[in-house]
């Protein structure tokens, strides 16, 4: 009886394992936009009683290309950049639809939202109440008899 070469013993299947297939996806893969849309990169923080979201949207006309909505505690930013065919050169710019939704903090005032656009950065500010300090409760200690 012949021994099989070690290479045959570790032969890989034609399809890679699921772990390999999905290893390149970021941890927020469940938030991927539709295939024809691109993800907007953003940063957010709470500062001075406002939840502030900053989104990278260079080369946009805020009046025509950007739409901001809020519904059921979710802030959604949508943008559209149309391609301008100006020649036969190379372009590495992203064109098409861009979108991103984030959950607003608890208690966010959906009626008090403002947005501004400066140098390719969209800033959206949502008023949030300052968390009330937890009420202090004193517990009476009973002496054992």
UniProtKB/TrEMBL annotation:
Assigned protein family: Belongs to the small heat shock protein (HSP20) family.
InterPro entries: A-crystallin/Hsp20_dom (IPR002068), HSP20-like_chaperone (IPR008978), Small_HSP (IPR031107)
Gene3D superfamilies: 2.60.40.790
One Pfam family named in its UniProt record: HSP20
Protein name: SHSP domain-containing protein
Residues of the SHSP domain: 33-144
């Amino acid at each position: 009886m012949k021994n099989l070469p070690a290479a045959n013993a570790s032969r890989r299947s034609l399809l890679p394992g699921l772990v390999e297939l999905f290893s390149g996806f970021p941890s927020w893969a469940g938030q991927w936009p539709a295939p024809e849309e691109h993800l907007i990169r953003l940063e957010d923080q709470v500062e001075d009683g406002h939840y502030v979201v900053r989104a990278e949207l260079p080369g946009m006309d805020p009046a025509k290309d950007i739409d901001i909505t809020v519904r059921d505690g979710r802030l959604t930013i949508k943008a559209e950049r149309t391609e301008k065919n100006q020649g036969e050169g190379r372009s590495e710019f992203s064109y098409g639809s861009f979108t991103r939704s984030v959950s607003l903090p608890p208690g966010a005032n959906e009626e008090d939202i403002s947005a501004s656009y400066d140098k390719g950065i969209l800033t959206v500010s949502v008023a949030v109440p300052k968390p009330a300090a937890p009420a202090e409760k004193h517990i009476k200690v009973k002496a054992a008899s």
